[in-house]
Write a structure and sequence with these properties.
Two copies of one chain form a homodimer. Helix content of chain A is 81%, strand content 0%. With 211 residues, the first copy, chain A, is mostly helical. In chain A, helix 3 runs antiparallel to helix 4 (97-138) and helix 4 packs antiparallel against helix 5 (144-169). Chains A and B meet through helix 1, helix 2, helix 3, helix 5 and helix 6 of A and helix 1, helix 2, helix 3, helix 5 and helix 6 of B.
């Protein structure tokens, strides 16, 4: 597992010119950090008398965020794996018409494959953001900034992941497939942006008031 | 060093209710990941004939990003350390007028101390963003999405770090100090937002065109 290594080493590996882990894996990592911020808020809220009315939902949030965090950690590897067919396809020869045709077909499929992990990363982070919204509004006020931090990380990781969809769809020849994948990404981005503005807005108002 | 441990362990530690690492340390980590994306672009650009005209600046970018990444990794620890006086101050008694007065003074200084690492994190990430802008415009076109990913991470980490300034300044009694620290944070956020929009806008236009 890519994240099953020293953090400084992971950061150095990401900094190198090696193709993986790349932007997709980095986005899944930041998504896992967003989930961590939600879990921190939930862990500071659960079991407290002041928040007993929402204890059941806090438990649900803990469950959901733990699951999505685990999923995002796995998706760092899936994103790297999803890039392999594309790396192979790039190397195919196109000296003859026949080779050109084969390369185009293989590329098209590889581009589709490479865009699947980024889309799955986005779907997972969207679930994280829904929990962050609940926790920002109902979780421990001691951790209000942490819910905001989580929302900021999550939205940036969603948009980062969408760039890894678009860099693949850009090269696709089949317009219908390209449009469909871009639409999926755009719709999730729209939801994420709305959620981020709500959560970040609430937190900022709480911390800075009207000054 | 906090990041000198397994990444999954770090994510789990962040998810716990332990006060450190908290939002500030998480922001420095995402800042280091933003620097990693810049380094990836620079490493894919340096030494290439196509980009030899900008080789000198690419070398500068490599130097600057390496330095700021190292600094951000250190700042994860400095942020945790900066929180210690505040954790102590919270526990001071305030049973008498005298104790109350002492606690207020100690708290005021501890809140100032706790806001220094978040401000340093922001200053460091701003330098990372300036390099990302250069790399997004002049770096290898193969890595265009990575410059965008870096800009997204950087801006979210800057805003996340500012929340860790505001959560401290909110409790300050000295209005002049509060306003000054908030102003420093707001000015850096404004620059970061502008840089992010420029870099992300360029990348998105390049990847999606006008569709």
């Amino acid at each position: 597992m890519i994240l099953d290594r020293n953090t400084i080493e992971f950061i150095e590996l990401l900094s190198s010119k090696e193709p993986t882990p790349g932007g997709g894996g980095a986005a899944a990592t930041v998504g896992a950090l967003a989930a961590a911020m939600g879990l921190m808020v939930a862990n500071l809220t659960t079991g407290k008398k002041k928040y007993e009315e929402v204890e059941h939902q806090v438990q649900e949030a803990l469950h959901c965020l733990t699951r999505e965090q685990k999923r995002l950690i796995e998706l760092v590897d899936e994103d790297a794996k999803g890039f392999l067919p594309l790396a192979k396809a790039y190397k195919l020869p196109k000296n003859t018409k026949e080779e050109e045709k084969i390369k185009e077909e293989v590329m098209e499929e590889a581009l589709f494959t490479a865009s699947q992990a980024p889309l799955a990363i986005m779907a997972s982070i969207l679930k994280v953001m829904e929990q962050l919204k609940f926790l920002g509004e109902n979780g421990s006020t001691l951790a209000i900034s942490d819910a905001g931090v989580g929302a900021l990380f999550a939205e940036s990781a969603m948009k980062a992941s969408s760039l890894n969809v678009f860099i693949n769809t850009k090269m696709m020849k089949k317009e219908a497939v390209r449009k469909e994948l871009n639409k999926q990404a755009d719709q999730m981005i729209e939801k994420a942006q709305k959620l981020k503005e709500e959560i970040y807005g609430t937190v900022l108002k709480n911390l800075k008031g009207d000054q």
